[in-house]
Amino acid sequence: MNRVRHTNQFIRLARQLRGWRVGDLLPAQCPFCHAWPVWHQPGGICATCLVRYARQTPRCTCCALALPAPEMPCPSCAALPSPLQRCIAAVDYAYPWHQAVAAFKFAQQPAWAQAMSQLLLAQPDCHVLVEHCDWIVPVPLSAQRLRERGYNQAWELCRALAHRCDQTGKCLPYAITRHHVPQTQAKQSRQERLRRMHRMFALTSGNSTMWAGRRVLLVDDVMTTGATLFALAKTLQAAGASRVDALVFARTPFEG
């Protein structure tokens, strides 16, 4: 009887540890302040850095721009109204998060998606958007950009969010294609980005009717001017989507 009991206990423990890596069982060093040790925090970020750099701030409900106070007019939406019904961001695209995004995006560190998804889901209404939408769509990369990076960081974040909310069946990673833009958008003004967004996205052949009356949730790592998300939202609305919302990990502060 003791052998059976011990065997059952071992099986239960094995099931609990299934999918865990050795690193998940060990303390980590904070990637920002290098404090040691850090246990069970998103991305190994220490509690002090989370309080300092990830505190919630008032944001525009339609473009996630940080505002000085709740209910204040959004200067970004005043200049260009957002086609998004709701947009949520976890942090500003500033120190130290720009380092994390760069590692996530360009340095082959897709594991950052786990910490970013946790921080996003800590925002008010984030769970609601994930659970109430019909489709979850990562902002696509062009085929050339995907070959260069080896993965789409927006899809990694999308997958992590959906998994944490048990909504993986809603994910559509290949439903929209993106044409290649030779010049990187990071060096362009907002007006230039908006002009280049024209006709950038296309619905995958054969699925044009699947958007009719649907609530679509877009996911991306960074929102700068909003040009990419706005163009994609308008493409989906033209295809019949009844509502388009967005989740972004980081939002660039308004520069006027």
Automatic annotation (TrEMBL):
SUPFAM superfamilies according to UniProt: PRTase-like
Database matches in CDD domains: PRTases_typeI
The organism's place on the tree of life at top rank: Bacteria
Domain Phosphoribosyltransferase: residue ranges: 196-251
Family, per entry: Belongs to the ComF/GntX family.
Protein name: ComF family protein
